[in-house]
Design a protein that fits this description.
Blueprint: H1 21-28, E1 32-36, E2 39-42, H2 44-63, E3 67-68, E4 74-76, H3 77-83, H4 85-88, E5 94-97, E6 103-106, H5 111-121, E7 130-139, E8 154-164, H6 167-187, E9 192-196, E10 207-213, E11 219-224, E12 230-232, E13 254-257, H7 264-271, E14 279-286, E15 289-296, H8 303-309, E16 315-317, H9 320-326, E17 343-347, E18 356-359, E19 365-370, E20 380-382, E21 400-415, H10 417-422, E22 425-427, E23 433-435, E24 437-444, H11 445-455, E25 457-458, E26 461-462, E27 473-477, H12 483-498, E28 503-505, H13 512-522, E29 526-530, E30 538-543, E31 549-553, H14 554-568
Parallel strand pairs: 3-7, 15-17, 17-20, 27-28, 27-29
Antiparallel strand pairs: 1-2, 4-6, 5-6, 7-8, 8-24, 9-10, 10-21, 11-12, 11-21, 13-19, 14-15, 14-16, 18-19, 21-24, 22-23, 25-26, 29-30, 30-31
Helix pairs in contact: 1-11, 2-6, 2-11
GO molecular function, one term: catalytic activity, acting on a protein
Domain Aminoacyl-transfer RNA synthetases class-II family profile: 33-465
InterPro entries: aa-tRNA-synt_IIb, aa-tRNA-synth_II, aa-tRNA-synth_II/BPL/LPL, Anticodon-bd, Anticodon-bd_dom_sf, Pro-tRNA-ligase_IIa, Pro-tRNA-synth_IIa_bac-type, Pro-tRNA-Synthase_IIa_type1
Length: 569
């Protein structure tokens, strides 16, 4: 491709709305442009990268035995109502009505659609297992689109769905996808880690997220420094070891005035006590009921763990208005004198507290000498807190450390959650109806591009890995008005093209400095500069990633590039 003909509007200045490197560089290097918040147009260079990602994904999905289909983006509300997600999914679900006032959604995912497809067309064990996938644009009404295409309202995703006759079959399908994802992200040149995770709104038991390691990642990864255990913060298991000798106060509870003292920090100053000596109580609405969750004052509640414990579809902090209706004063919540039907759940560490301070459920008062089990009843104790760095690993006893990551893939074991609700059944070899056992597997195609840029850039621009580069080689004649340079550059361009390389020729009548800045910004793996030694048939060959450069005679250029290309693949 000749650059003079390429729609490639590069920018020198950093866009005001771009907070992170990938967003800045994808706009500055002419890969994309924003239409409205969270919605982007991909320009030719960006589209080429997207297609490279899609090609890798298709090859590995096909290799794993999955079959590509294409499902509608517009989905009838009735399917989502069958599974209960019409109400449970939340405001991120983009809803619309047609001219007949029928409800539809713009698909953020396709569990309902694919389940109805298989339900209506496959009904025997002889046709299973099957794995169907698609690459399609998805829609989610993000409350705050940010970081370019890492969190956008419209994005490109690969989603796959497996249907099996048994749990053992699902395990095989799941492992097949796990292995395929490992190959995909490796081929894409990403530094990544597979971590245990929570299924969230998708549902199901057994899931891993594939995280591209990055300091700007929105997810925290808890990993062991001694073994291969890794989990998303919301899923990471906390090792509980009961206190060997619990010292329990004999003093009865005492209600003491604490006017305006609400936070743990304020309580620490007021009582001159450590955070670990306080019980922190939080009120949540779990579907249509209310629950109180307790953690030690030096711990943070993990609301995902709580949601799973109480088996709620939707869990949210109680609003101030809801607290007023319950008669619970904000800032003085405790496990005492609660309205009928409000259950109390506590983190495992709470049961070891032998003399604690807790809110009295009365404005401006707390209780001291509180003993869990003696002074209040807990519905259940469970692991309800966030793991912290230095905690013990649940697998090997090593120490936990943290890293940040961008979620680029997610694999789920759905089981029968969707097949039972939607009647997706098959006849087994005995002629008996059984629900299909499902798995779900997603990859953020557009997010992968951003993650790649986050991991591969410097102060001058993008540094594309060979597998995703929009073009492999950038041929840059320093002065196109010099006939020798122009002719040599064009002959190199044609030679490399015939050899199977994807080549971009900068034939613009720009100054050399402008060309070199654009070349570094775009970041193609190899740059061939045709300059003052063109009359001798000598050009400069430079690797963008390492900065390694060498003068090469044109007769040896192809062999030299083949050597460089091999080292970059």
């Amino acid at each position: 491709m000749k650059q003079s003909k390429l729609f490639l509007p590069t920018l020198r200045e950093v866009p005001a709305e771009a907070e992170i490197a990938s967003h800045q560089l994808m706009v500055r290097a002419g890969l994309m442009r924003q239409l409205v918040s969270g919605v982007y147009t991909y320009l030719p260079l960006g589209l080429r990268v997207l297609r490279k990602v899609q090609e890798i994904v298709r090859e590995e999905m096909d290799r794993a035995g999955a079959q590509e289909i294409s499902m509608p983006a517009i989905q009838p509300a009735e399917l989502w109502q069958e599974t209960g997600r019409w109400d449970a999914y939340g405001p991120e679900l983009m809803r619309l009505k047609d001219r007949h006032h029928r409800d539809f959604v713009l698909g953020p995912t396709h569990e309902e659609v694919v389940t109805s497809l298989v339900r209506d067309n496959l009904n025997t064990y002889k046709k299973l297992p099957i794995n169907l996938y698609q690459i399609q644009t998805k829609y989610r009404d993000e409350v705050r689109p940010r970081f370019g295409v890492i969190r956008s309202r419209e994005f490109i995703m690969k989603d796959a769905y497996s249907f099996d006759v048994s749990r053992e079959g699902l395990d095989k399908s799941y492992q097949s996808m796990y292995d395929a994802y490992t190959r995909i992200f490796t081929r894409a040149g990403l530094t990544f880690r597979a971590v245990e995770a929570d299924a969230g709104a998708i549902g199901g038991k057994g899931t891993h997220e594939f995280m591209a390691l990055s300091e700007i990642g929105e997810d925290t990864i808890a990993y062991c420094t001694s073994c291969d255990y890794a989990a998303n913060l919301e899923k990471a298991e906390v090792v509980y070891k009961p206190v060997a000798e619990r010292t329990v106060t004999e003093a009865p509870m005492e209600k003491v005035p604490t006017p305006g003292v609400k936070t743990i920090e304020q309580l620490m100053n007021h009582f001159n006590m450590e955070a670990r000596q306080f019980i922190k109580a939080l009120v949540f609405k779990a579907d249509d009921r209310f629950v109180v969750a307790l953690v030690r004052g030096d711990h943070e509640l993990n609301d995902v763990k709580l949601k799973n414990l109480v088996d709620a579809n939707v869990l949210a902090m109680a609003t101030e208005e809801e607290m007023k209706k319950l008669g619970i004063p904000l800032g003085f919540v405790g496990p005492f004198h609660l309205p009928e039907g409000v259950e109390v759940y506590a983190d495992l560490a709470v049961q070891d507290m032998g003399s604690a301070v807790a809110g009295a459920n009365e404005k401006d008062y707390h209780y001291t000498h509180v003993v869990p089990g003696r002074d209040f009843t807990v519905q259940a104790y469970a692991d309800l807190r966030n793991i912290v760095e230095g905690d013990e690993c649940s697998r090997c006893g090593g120490h936990i450390a943290f890293a940040r990551g961008i979620e680029v893939g997610h694999v789920f074991k759905l089981g029968t959650r969707y097949s039972e609700k939607m009647g997706a059944k098959f006849l087994d070899e005995n002629g008996k109806e059984q629900p299909m056992i499902m798995g779900c597997y997603g990859i953020g195609i557009s997010r992968m591009v951003a993650a790649c840029v986050e991991q591969n850039h410097d102060e001058n621009g993008i540094i594309w890995p060979w597998s995703l580069a929009p073009y492999h080689i950038h041929v840059v004649p320093v002065n196109v008005k010099n006939e020798e340079q122009k002719q040599l550059a064009e002959s190199i361009y044609e030679m490399l093209g015939r050899a199977g390389y994807e080549v971009l020729l900068d034939d613009r009548p720009e100054r050399a400095g402008v060309k070199f800045k654009d070349a570094d910004l775009i970041g193609l793996p190899i740059r061939v500069t045709v300059g003052g030694k063109a009359s001798e048939g000598i050009v400069e060959c430079k690797v963008r990633k390492t900065g390694e450069s060498q003068d090469v005679h044109v007769d040896e250029l192809l062999a030299h590039i083949q050597h460089f290309a091999t080292s970059l693949q």
